[in-house]
Amino acid sequence: MSTPILDVSNLSKRFGGVQAVEDITFKVQPGELMGVIGPNGSGKTTLVNLITGFIRPDQGSIHYREREITGWMPYRISRQGLARTFQMVRPFYHLPAFKNMIIPLSSPRVKELPGGRYGDRDAVAKDLLEEVGFERDSPVISRSSKK
Ligand SMILES: Nc1ncnc2c1ncn2[C@@H]1O[C@H](COP(=O)(O)OP(=O)(O)OP(=O)(O)O)[C@@H](O)[C@H]1O
Ligand SMILES: [Mg+2]
Fold first, then answer.
1. What is the pLDDT of residue 141?
2. Which ranges in the chain are annotated with CATH 3.40.50.300?
3. What is the pLDDT of residues 55-73, one digit of tens each?
4. What's the CATH code, domain 6-80?
5. Where are the alpha helices (DSSP H) in the chain?
6. Model pTM score
């Protein structure tokens, strides 16, 4: 078996009287897809928050690509390449779609990616928007203005 890309060991987190995550251990291999299921309040989101640094564990360790990331801040973890998405997508509603694309393309991690595709940020933003049917200066429709 190859080296796991994610190695979670004996992870626990308590909120007052609630043991949200208790002694969780698992590994994810490169290319593997893993789902986490459980009833409401069983600790799924807490587990994701622990792995991505949004909260610190009481116990246990997290290794990503063999590097220990336990207790790191989320921005440091995401720069290593480990990122999460959220259930509710929240673009910057006051900015046009084009500027919403520029923000993620400004991250240090994107800048490190090899290849010409990421050389010209504005061109990449425009290309990506056109791929999904936007035009360069399309506004993001805000929830309040939506009829
Ligand atoms: N910041 C917090 N402070 C106090 N208690 C919390 C906090 N976050 C989560 N909890 C509690 O920890 C437990 C696990 O919650 P969590 O949100 O991780 O569950 P979940 O599996 O994601 O649930 P759902 O399916 O509803 O999204 C719940 O009892 C919840 O009330
Ligand atoms: Mg949840």
1. 53
2. 6-80
3. 999 999 999 999 999 999 9
4. 3.40.50.300
5. 44-51, 74-80, 97-105, 108-112, 121-131
6. 0.81
